[in-house]
Amino acid sequence: MNDMYCNPELRKAIAFSLFIKTRVKSSAVQRWSINKLHEITGVSACAVRKRIDTLKALGLVEFTGKNNRCLVFKSLKSHTSHRNVLVPNIEFISRNDSKKNAYAQNVKFIEDTLSAMLIIDVQNRKNYAKQMIQQTKYPKDLKELKAAKKACNRFGYGDKFRENGISYKYIAEKLSVSVQKAFDLVKFAVKNEILSKYRNIEKRFLSSIDYIKDMILNNYTYIKGGVICRVYANTYEVKAGSPSARFAGMVYN
Q1: Would 97 be classed as within a structural domain?
Q2: Final residue in a domain of this structure, among 44, 66, 84
């Protein structure tokens, strides 16, 4: 899972494999060729070669039959359940006003969805850390207290949770993409109802604000009507109830 997040080429290869599985029977392409895979996916011949090389290096494709003319895309599901990533059910939509190949659009859609999973994973970890910190304050017993403290230390929060959000720069570094691409991925996830995005602003009212502006210059983003406002990175909420973000493992089969 972590390898997929930090490796754009691997995400592209996984997206390619997932799309192929929706287009052929039993995940197998009979009498395969680069050109045939291009026709199935709309991805360029050069990109097809790269995707197949990546999948082959990971043992995620198999060449079988006479003269290895059958290409089988192997299961992406791990036997270790916690290593699997559950992705939303994807409804493919072709835009007639687009010049891009409809199939290639769908492959790209899957790739962006996989990238959006990183934001979900980070947010889920933060939510879990917050829950564990609360659990240290009101544990049921000593065993639960020790487990909660161990989890808090593992996530680096100690005994106090602070919501600093998830910055575009952090997302970009984790996904090995540009900040602009990270911004576009968040926009994609919000548009397709995978995530809800919220501004993260801490506000404090000070009656004597006019006298201490210079003293607290580095501790606020802006001041409005006597209220000190400090803007942090956006926070996110997984829209688990929406159709496009209903998690299902069906695409891994």
Answers
A1: no
A2: 84
pTM of the model: 0.74
The predicted-structure confidence for 8-58, as pLDDT tens digits, reads as follows 999 999 999 999 998 899 999 999 999 999 999 999 999 999 999 999 999
Vertex 228: Cα angle to 237 and 119 (nearest 5): 20
User: Residues 108, 124, 231, CA angle at the centre, nearest 5°?
Assistant: 90
Closest CA to 163 of 124, 134, 127: 127
What stretch of H or E contains 124? helix 102-137
Per the structure, the complete domain to which residue 228 belongs is given by 116-248
Same domain? For 127 and 244 the reply is: yes
**DSSP-assigned letters across all residues of 198-228:** EEEEEEEE-TTHHHHTTTTGGG-SEEETTEE
Same domain, 220 and 124: yes
